[in-house]
Amino acid sequence: MNSFRYLGSSVLLVLALGCGSTQRSNDDDTANGDDGNTTKTAGNTSTSGDSGSGSSTDAAGPNSSDNASSNDGNTSTTATAMGGDGGADTGAPASTDAGSNAGSSGGASSSSGASSSNGGASSSSGGAGAVSGAGGTGVVADPGCGSHKWACWPMPNMAGSGLPNEASYTRIEDGVVLDNITQLMWDDRISAQAHMWQDAIEFCEAFEWGGFDDWRLPTRIEMTSVLDHSDDHTGWAAEAFEYPNSGFHFSASDWILTITQTGAGAGNDYAWAFNMSDGIVSNAYSKSNATPLKCVRGGGSGEGPSDPAVAPPDQYSIVAEGEVRDNYTGLIWQRGDSDDMLSWEEAVAYCKDLDLNGNSWRLPSIRELATLVDEAEVAPAINSEMFPDTKYGARSNDWYWATPQRGSAAWGLNFDDGFTGTNTGSAAWNTFGPSWARCVR
After folding, report:
1. Does the pLDDT value for residue 194 go beyond 70?
2. Rounded to 5°, angle at Cα 228 from 420 and 351
3. What's the pLDDT at 231?
4. How far apart are CA 1 and CA 365, in angstroms?
5. Is residue 430 within 8 Å of 398, Cβ to Cβ?
6. What are phi and psi for residue 325, nearest 5 degrees?
7. Domain ranges (residues) in the chain
8. Predicted TM-score of the model (pTM)
9. CA 300 to CA 202: how far, in whole Å?
10. Residues near 312 by Cβ (< 8 Å), separated by ≥ 6?
11. Ramachandran bin of 91, using left for φ above 0, alpha for ψ from -120 to 50, beta for the remaining angles
12. Do the Cβ atoms of 282 and 23 come closer than 8 Å?
């Protein structure tokens, strides 16, 4: 199925809107995952940011790449993770990332917690908007939820996955791509310079591209919506982006314990980042690193990078005994989970055979599972009223399985903070065996 459409810059498109980890750094796990003071700063796979060849360098173990500087155990990778552009198609659109790399540790901190909306039968808010090509006003749909840190739209699943809301994209012009599901618009160009976190935020805010000047750095959940996890391709969604960089990329989601400067965040400068070479999502990537970036626009109003995530109004409804509906994504979740820890294959079978209110269930995709993560919370990073007794914990088997598989391994998410990985590692953060299942429909 062709999930991509191209429109020339003079075409006006009217669209209606329906309706996450460890720093895989190079050092040992410094997390205390059971008290919420969790910093995952370890991993067996650390991708060198110099992706000039388009390939990643997998670290063999602790302190093996990124020129890591280990300080006091709360290690941050201080090297410049240059997202190189060599090896890209010579016809790739390129912009000059002119900002300086003198990035600071981020914007103003906010210690206020996020409110979690509970219950309430509410349908997801929609909206319609128009987007135009170069020189246009570029009005895009506002989902009306007031948050950039939650999925206020159906979560796209990978093209070709056969799952609901299969991803599709429209190329507005060369270098600008519209996600037809989320209605977020992305820049598709080679990021020619690496940026520290604060500089990345400021670069996107000042970015003018494709005739638009209201770009911003994408948040954790927005980047999740365009992250492929298949054996054939891991990284920026292949169906959307012709000119991706690999290696780590910053998001605009500051880690909550860095915002509040409490627990493992005290004295540290961690933010959420994505390794576009192996698909892992980290809550503890030092802002002093420098990474390539992509900018996004659309999604209405929302939190600033260093504001705690604010749950949208009437986010969840209990629709039946043991079932919770996300009124924005449209997904209906098992409120509990499997009674026992399961292998991945057993988790798939468990959801397929789940007898809950006569409905058909399945194991969620890793993208779908990530929509449950509440960035304003840790241990567990989820709405505990809607999903009581959710398991969590670094250095444990308290992960939740997801699809797809990755070779002989499979993807999982840990609600300690919401970081993701595959059970393939030798480091503490992703050495997990039998885990839990929470089903979706």
Report:
1. yes
2. 60
3. 78
4. 20
5. no
6. -100, 130
7. 316-430
8. 0.75
9. 19
10. 117, 145, 146, 147, 150, 152, 328
11. alpha
12. yes
